[in-house]
Amino acid sequence: MENFTKRTVTATFDRTSHEATFNKNSECVKASLRRTRTIEKIQTSKLGTPSSLALDQLTPIRKSPRKSKTAQVKIRKAVPADKAPILEISKNLWSGHDYLPLVWDDWLADTDNRLIVATVNGKTLGVAHAILQTPDVAWLEGVRVHEQYRGHGIAGKLNKALVEWARKRHARVARLCTGSSNQASRKHLERIHFPVLQTFQRLDSTRGLRAKPAGVNATRRSSKSLWNWLRTRSEFAENRAMYSDGWTWHPLTPQAFKKNVAQGRVLVASKNRQPSACCILLDEDEVITAGFVAGEPRDVGKLIRMLRYQIRRKGRETLRVLLPLKSPMIQALKHSGFEKTAKIIVYEKFLG
Ligand SMILES: CC(C)(COP(=O)(O)OP(=O)(O)OC[C@H]1O[C@@H](n2cnc3c(N)ncnc32)[C@H](O)[C@@H]1OP(=O)(O)O)[C@@H](O)C(=O)NCCC(=O)NCCS
């Protein structure tokens, strides 16, 4: 029997959890979180005492200046019994605001993805997850290693196993992201030679606007001409043909674009009946996120004013924009009152 109690809540997600997770760690929250209609919030305070990790082959990093090279780390598919030890690891992260408890059941139940754990002598002390975003692109996430057993390359082993899984499924690349302030994560990725694809600046503003700007609309019509305009923009290349929902970077394919258009998530500014700026949005958890922006700065300015108008009209707390680190729009947004709140690094490995 599980040694914790669960309380079912029907909110989408606790925003402060998102914030805390992202600010302290800046890892991407899984898109499946959004698919979750009912979220089970774990009452971590009721978790039982941690089970003893008597790992005779893996010396805890805290107790030994030298890292053990004889660790018999095994990687296997996660099973329901891994939930308790993984939640135990998770509850110590980011002041108990890790998102992993919220997605664990979905991840375990989803047969299209891969949820794996690392064990030593049968004890579960690490976890990681992967999905195929498209047949070509795998997204890796949710890597966690027990606090006392870090620095032994366990995250590297988990990563390798997910990369192998993606390769077997004929994915061409594996991607993931981490916050620039997460030194351990960055070191681990450097150590396993996972190359950086692009760094993104996150900017937030809470300032709304009363007046609705003219010439900006959410398009729901055929997106072909807009797509042709967009894919030739320099911003498309700088975004590495990806858009973000704030937590995950998704491949920006014609299909994904069409879907976003159909969902009313694409905002377009026009001049002489031609698109002059465009952004892809997510409106969720009190935050409107522009996870892809293209166009001349003046026209993008119009989009931003429309978004400011929307946060006021819809009563959202924050307007968030994610831009490639070298985007000239960062300065423009700073001048108009946005604050830089995080840098997120997206990595990509070719799978050959
Ligand atoms: C990031 C994490 C998964 C790495 O796991 P791991 O198995 O310890 O990875 P590695 O063994 O490759 O060690 C990574 C490096 O980080 C170092 N490290 C550990 N804690 C650190 C810290 N707080 N600050 C800086 N470096 C740290 C390790 O010493 C090691 O460096 P080295 O290669 O020079 O020896 C693990 O630290 C963890 O679970 N962190 C909390 C969850 C998290 O941040 N997940 C990633 C979200 S993107």
Instruction: Look up the CATH topology of the largest domain.
Output: Aminopeptidase
Distance between the termini: 44 Å
Largest sheet composition: 12 strands, mixed
Low-confidence stretches: 1-57, 59-66
Strand content: 25-35%
**CATH architecture verdict of the largest domain:** 3-Layer(aba) Sandwich
CATH homologous superfamily placement of the largest domain: Gcn5-related N-acetyltransferase (GNAT)
Radius of gyration: 21 Å
**Structural shape:** elongated
Portion in helices: 25-40%
The largest beta-sheet arranges its strands as 3-4-5-6-7-16-8-15-14-13-12-9
Mean pLDDT over the full residue set: 83
Description of the molecule:
The protein has helices at residues 15-24, 32-35, 83-91, 100-109, 154-168, 183-191, 224-231, 234-238, 254-262, 297-314, 329-335; strands spanning 6-9, 39-42, 73-77, 114-120, 123-132, 137-145, 173-179, 196-205, 216-218, 242-244, 249-251, 266-271, 274-284, 287-295, 318-324, 339-350. By secondary structure, it is α+β, with helices and mostly antiparallel strands. The strands form three sheets. A twelve-stranded mixed sheet has the order 3-4-5-6-7-16-8-15-14-13-12-9, with helices on both faces. The chain has a two-stranded antiparallel ribbon with strand order 1-2. Helix 3 runs antiparallel to helix 4. The longest helix is centred in the last third of the chain and has 18 residues, at 297-314. It binds coenzyme A. The site of coenzyme A has 21 residues, from strand 6, helix 5 and helix 6.
